[in-house]
Design goal:
- The protein has one domain.
- Helix content is 80%, strand content 0%.
- By secondary structure, it is mainly α.
């Protein structure tokens, strides 16, 4: 039996929070796994326990009463549901914030485009006035030349 890998694996300690994959499958007694199929998964996935706390629960599971196991399972399920609810609320809030920022960005973009168009419009009006003034000057100059020619 000493050559059996499972027996040596169970007798040797594992380093800081590391667990062999085979040991993980055999931590929960079969009768508990059959009666509470998702309990092992709930314990492994909970965010509120450290690895040491998980080990503690796996070690005492065989001596716990059905009522205690049901209560532990209920707590873990409730925690999972509450975390899922919080995640959903967080995603909703994040989505709202993203939409708000997108709208603000679009509004800023529109404002910049309006400002650019307004500047272009002002420049075009100035160029138009300058061209108009130049034409008036040319017309006056022509009128002055015609007037001096008629008097001469």
């Amino acid at each position: 039996m000493a050559d059996d890998p499972k027996s040596t694996q169970q007798n040797t300690g594992t380093g800081a929070g590391q667990q062999p994959k085979d040991e993980k499958k055999h931590r929960v007694p079969d009768y508990i796994r059959e009666k509470y199929p998702n309990l092992e998964q709930l314990i492994n996935e909970t965010e509120s326990m450290t690895n040491e706390e998980r080990e503690y629960w796996f070690q005492i599971l065989p001596i716990m009463t059905d009522k205690q196991i049901q209560k532990l399972r209920g707590i873990l399920i409730h925690e999972k549901e509450q975390l899922a609810k919080l995640d959903k609320e967080y995603e909703t809030e994040l989505s709202k914030l993203n939409q708000k920022h997108i709208m603000e960005w679009k509004e800023q973009d529109r404002k910049e485009k309006r400002d650019t168009l307004k500047k272009q419009e002002v420049e075009a009006e100035k160029e138009e006035k300058d061209a108009e003034a130049e034409l008036l000057e040319q017309m006056e100059a022509l009128g002055d030349e015609e007037g001096t020619e008629e008097t001469a």
